[in-house]
Amino acid sequence: MTHKAPTWITICETCKLPDWAERGMDKTDGEILAEAIEQRAAATGIKTRRVACTMGCERACNIIVQGAGKIGYSLGKFDGNDADAEAIVSYATQHAASPSGQVPFRDWPQGVKGHFVSRHLPPPTDPAEGA
Predict the structure, then answer these.
(1) Residue 72 region by backbone torsions, left for phi larger than 0, else alpha for psi between -120 and 50, else beta
(2) Is 1 among the domain residues?
(3) CATH label of the domain that carries residue 70
(4) Which residues contact 10 (CB under 8 A, 6 or more apart)?
(5) Largest CB tally within 10 Å, which of 26, 49, 115, 126?
């Protein structure tokens, strides 16, 4: 039996948009985005986790999509709304279906285009590869 490693969405729950204080929010923008992502991801098999900081404060709201042995992606500059959550989970579902984690640009949900910050290659599986 083969076990497929899950795709994860890591959500920065401490992210705050620049006008957060002026809006009088009782939750961070990251917490609001995390709740919306968690609700949508629950039915897809995509795993979620919250972290206290992804060190991308100037690009709040930030998330990371990753899976074992796959290219991972950091995304940011989201508003933290339901439309963002929908696009993020849709993209993560495509990432999960891809053996390498790469998703052709033409297939990206419109809501993630322009939000990619960086990609992270998985570590080599052969120790000699890094020598």
Answers:
(1) beta
(2) no
(3) 3.40.30.10
(4) 48, 49, 50, 51, 54, 63, 64, 66
(5) 115
Distance CA 17, CA 20 (A): 5
Contact 51, 10 (CB under 8 A): yes
Residue 46 lies in a domain: yes
Q: Is residue 12 part of a domain?
A: yes
Helices (H) and strands (E) in the chain, counts: 2, 5
Give residue for tokens 């709304």. 81
* Mode of pairing for the β-strands spanning 7-12 and 63-67: antiparallel
Looking at the structure of the chain, the number of domains it has is 1
Q: Look up the domain containing 114 and give its range.
A: 7-130
Query: For residue range 48-107, what is the model confidence (pLDDT) as tens digits?
Result: 999 999 999 889 899 999 999 999 999 999 999 999 999 999 999 999 999 999 999 999
First to last CA, the chain: 33
Amino acid 2: pLDDT: 43
Domain membership flag for residue 25: yes
Query: Could you say which DSSP state residue 49 is in?
Result: E
pTM score, two decimals?
A: 0.91
